[in-house]
Write a structure and sequence with these properties.
This protein is of the alpha/beta class and 174 residues long. It has a single domain, classed as Rossmann fold. The protein has a 5-stranded parallel beta sheet. Helix 6 links the parallel strand 4 and strand 5. Helix 1 crosses helix 7 and helix 2 packs across helix 3. The longest helix has 16 residues. The radius of gyration is 16 Å and the shape is globular. The model has no long low-confidence stretch (mean pLDDT 92).
Length: 174
Amino acid sequence: MKVYLIAGKARSGKTKAAELLKKILEKENKKVVITEYSKYVKLFAKELLGWDMISEPKPRKFLQDMGTFVRELESDIYFTKRMKEDLEIYKHFVDDVIISDVRMPKELEELSDFKPLKIKVENTLSSYDLTKEEASHETEHALDNYLNFDYVIKNKTEEEMKEILENIVKEVEV
């Protein structure tokens, strides 16, 4: 099973990159799942706030605060520990897993047993619509100086991103 980690800030194009990558891999007859570290925090938002887990705007401040609380409560391993458990299950059912919302260095490093491909998406197009408080949250800056990405994609257009991802997949499979 190949694991792809898609990292970046809010509105960088992580979800779009994951969706495009999934389509590319499925064209090669692979079974692919997209998952998120944030699915656990989103579930808390659903249960505590009644959020449906998809509607915009997201309760971003709640999600950020809950994520911080959980990381502090579990010595910063809650999300990676749960994801490792999930990956152990996924490997029996799929060829590739895409984790579409990497925000912290540990979320990249703690999955090293799975030999993941680390992709960072940087937004070069749209404006950043977060509040000042949301934009200053640690999850928006924790990867600013992280250098161990296999690929960095400057998010341009969907077509350009698709082409870059197709080339990455070709490279990885060689």
